[in-house]
Every structure is written in C-alpha cells, then in structure tokens.
Write a structure and sequence with these properties.
464 residues; alpha/beta; c-terminal autoproteolytic domain of nucleoporin nup98; Rossmann fold; seven-stranded mixed beta sheet; 14 strands; binds S-adenosyl-L-homocysteine
Length: 464
Amino acid sequence: MLLTITTTYQPATELGYLLHKHPDKCQSFALSFGQAHVFYPEADNQKCTAALLLDVNPIKLVRGKGTTLQQYVSDRPYVASSFLSVAISQVFSTALGGRSKDRPELAQTPIPLTAKLSVLPCRGGEAVLRELFEPLGYKVITQRHHLDEEFPEWGESRYFTVELQHTVTLSDLLSHLYVLIPVLDDDKHYWVGDEEIEKLLRHGEGWLANHPAKEQITKRYLKRQQRLTRLALAQLTEEEEDPDITEESHDKEEAIVEKPLSLNKQRLNAVVTVLKNNYAKRIIDLGCGQGNLLKMLLKDSFFEKVTGVDASYRCLEITQERLDRLRLPRNQWERLQLIQGALTYQDKRFKGYDAAAVIEVIEHLDLYRLNSFERVLFEFAKPQTVVVTTPNIEYNVKFETLPAGKLRHRDHRFEWTRQEFQNWANTVAEKFNYKVEYQPIGEEDTEVGSPTQMAIFRGVGSGE
Ligand code: SAH
C-alpha cells in the first residue's frame, strides 16, 4: 500500500523538515502489523514527493487464528485502511500534530499539497469519497478499478486510485487522511472502544464539527456503535468551534456580556430556592458544565444526592477538580456522581431523582433535537420537579457589549422571547402531564422583561 505526498511549495524539499524525514534517506519502521518505509521518489526545489510504503504482513494479521483462506485472499495488505492511519500516526506523529522543530511556522502554513493513494476502498463508491473530501476544499481525482483488470465485464470494484489536491497545512492533510481513510473503508482492524472518541475529536478538531457529513463520518469511524456515536456527536455539536475555547470560556464569555448583573449568581440562587421549596433532595443537573450548581448543592447538606451529567468529558474533569477543592468530608462525597452522557438519548441513569435542573442548556441543543430531549426528561426520567432556565432574547438589547442581533454565546442555537419559551414549555407540560409556572431572574425591565427566564414544571399525579 502506497501513499505519496507531493508539494510544489518552494523550496519543495522543505517537506523533509515538515515530515521530519530526510529526503536523501530511505527509512524503515517496524509496526505491530508489518513494516513502514519512507522515501522520496523525487526531491528538488520545484517539486518534492514523500512516499509512505506500508508492507502489511498478512501472516501476522491472522496469527493465532490458524491457517485460513483469509490470509491469502484478504485485501488488507494492499489497500489504504486503518493500518495506514496507524502508520501515519506513528511514522508522521510530529507532522500530524502540526509541529516542526526546524520549520514551526511552515507547519502552520497552508501549502499546495497532493496526496495520492494507490488503492483506496470506498464503501458507497465515488459519491461518498467526494462527500467526505470536497467539503474540506479538496480537488478529488479518481480512477476506479475493475473487479478484475483482465475481465472488465465483471464490473467495477470498490477500489479507487485517488489524488487529493488542496492548499492546506500538512497537519490538516494528515488529519483528514487519518480519520477519513478508515471511514471510507468502513472498517477497522482493532477493537473500537471509548478511547476512540477522543482520537476522533482530537484529529477532527477544527474541521469535523462543521463537516456536512459529520454524522456519517462519526458513525463509521466508531464502527457503527450507537453509544459511542451518540456521545461523540453530542460533544461535536457542543464543540462546533474550538473545543478549548468553548469549554473553558463558556462561563467567561457569557459572564462578560452579563457581568453588571452578576446574573449567574442570581440564577443559581433562584434555582436552589426552587429546589428547596419543592422539597427536592435528590437532584440531577443535566448539562452541568463546569459544576457551578453542583458546587452549591454539595455544600448544602439539605441535598442528599447530587448528580451532574454532561456530554463533555473535559467539562466533567474540570468539575471534578473544582469540587475536589471543596475538601468535603468523605461521607459528603458519596452524594456526588458525575456522568458522561447525552441529553437527547434515553438513559436509565437519569431516573430516580426528585428534581432535574436544566440550567442554560436547551439553547445549546439543535431545535430538531429538542423533541428527543423532552422525551428523555419528561417521559422517561420523569422527575417530580424540573427547572429549566434559558436566556430571554428580548433583554439582549440591554447588554451594552452585545452587538445587535447577536446571541449571548456563540454555541447558542437559539434564544427565545418570553412568548416563545412559554409556548414551548406549555406544550411540553401538557404533553407529559406536568404543570408549569414561570419566574423572571435578574433585574426586570418593564418592556423587555428579565435577562433570564425560568420555567418550573411539577408532575401532576403520582410522579416518580
Ligand atoms: N448548566 C451549566 C452549563 C451550561 S452550558 C451552567 O449553568 O453553568 C451548556 C452545557 O450543556 C455544556 O457544558 C455542554 O457540554 C452541555 N451540553 C450541550 N449539549 C448537550 C447534550 N446533547 N448532552 C449533554 N450535554 C450537553
């Protein structure tokens, strides 16, 4: 299996610095499944091509499985597959990470690059190949192979020779190949578990969240495992921009807009008061973020059980660290649980609570997913009390630092007027047998209302 990467950036031999492989040398690397060789078929100032030749050992592939026909007829040694992704990540790890000791700036600069894959299996055919690479800006040139070159009448195979051209950083090109090759092949040679989500998010950073085929990519990358796909998609949707910025500055960004009111504090106080008034002692905080509410609840011994749920593992790590700093006695800790989960999928772990808090979360969900969220919460988890807060968009005109028409946070999918929020909440209450009332949070303006709106739902009848 052969991958070549060519640049016409000048001097083209700079490619050697970016790949950390000298153009004059041929280097070999032992991998668990065979050998990788790196060499340069051409290297001058105008044009430089690096080749990664992967020699997959078919016997190693089936070692321990007895002698099977598969080791003779398998396509694995000859086609681009997850073996190639692993080889890229091991042989070109520095370049994949966007680093270069000698040319750090060039590593971050888009340069003209062409990747050529000698044999790429495409499940779904050329259309899928184009759907994956063209939205990223690649010019895709393909040549499809017949099932048998000598007998073209046998029809066409799913194998293509593919050339991908784009002006792009080397690190982006390698990341795209790393993720999309196994997606096209729709297979992986190793067990796919939770850690695969982290790889997908890491190598998909900056491009996957906005990719029109992100759902298909995620599904195939995670070998169609539903639980993993949901979790990954929930995180991707949340992290549509830079995940570092989104997570760490969510509080900050909104806080800057809302600061003069210290709205966050008022919101949390209002929610805690509602929970207490409703005698809710076991609380699940859905979309807990970095644990602001959890912290208040944990410090208050009125609350017997405190559970935080978030799709973002990073958020939960930060929450855990922040709560650790409370230095609570051990028996207090037992009240706390943190769960990584998606709010739009039914989850047994959400059951058994007196109240759910959904604080500044619904506006992060795509409108078309709200229905699923409603069912997960009001139909399946079904706590007696539900507190939902969300921004009141009418109030935005009062924030001096917020440009007209802009939402309070760039991950918000929508912000509602009071009427829109109440229409939604009334419908939900009626559908799922709850009663709902509303409270403003923050300074109330006679015309535009308060900055935050809160709905308090109470189950009618037995509840759970
Ligand atoms: N309730 C917190 C955080 C609000 S930010 C507070 O008031 O400070 C919204 C949070 O919802 C983020 O942490 C985000 O990761 C989480 N989130 C968004 N969509 C989600 C989903 N589909 N499943 C689980 N969590 C989600």
